[in-house]
Structure formats: C-alpha cells, structure tokens
Write a structure and sequence with these properties.
By secondary structure, the chain is mainly β. It has no helices and 8 strands. It has a 4-stranded antiparallel sheet, with no helix packed on it. Strands 5-6-7-8 form a 4-stranded antiparallel sheet, with no helix packed on it.
Length: 81
C-alpha cells in the first residue's frame, strides 16, 4: 500500500486475480464521492505528482500512468532479465 499526501490518493495492490492494483482518490472536504481506478500488475508505486508506475511481470514491463487522464499510459520500458 502506498499513500500520496499531496494528491490525497491511495495505491493498493495484491496478488489476487494474477496481480491487480487499485488507485483510490480520497474525497476532499465537502465532497462525498471518491474516485477509483483499477488495473493489472504485480505492484504499484507513486513516482511523482499525478502519476504512478505499475510493474507487470507477465509482459515484462513497467507502465507509467497519469491518474487524472484515464487513457494516458506509457509502457515502453522493458525490464532487464
């Protein structure tokens, strides 16, 4: 589990379903709804403001995702064996 205080977001990952993560945008003051994003991967970590990286062992790559833009992912970095 990983927490970003600047973005008030929580990254949780586990081995269920062959590895998956969930990004939860915690609600801000006066707002009741929280935003959630899910995907597949072995683990996940925040790497900067508004983005996080996900390790995908099956495809041997690390994907960087900007979480305010749902279709903005870069998976061009292959892992070394």
């Amino acid at each position: 589990m990983c927490y970003s205080a600047a973005e008030q977001a929580l990254l949780v990952w586990g081995e269920q379903d062959n590895g998956s993560y969930e990004l939860v945008q915690l609600p801000k003051a006066g707002v009741r709804d929280s935003e959630t994003k899910r995907g597949t991967g072995s683990s996940a970590v925040f790497i900067g403001r508004n983005r996080f990286a996900v390790l995908d062992n099956r495809q041997q790559q690390v994907c960087m995702t900007w979480y305010h833009h749902s279709n903005n992912t870069d998976c061009n970095q292959e892992l070394c064996e």
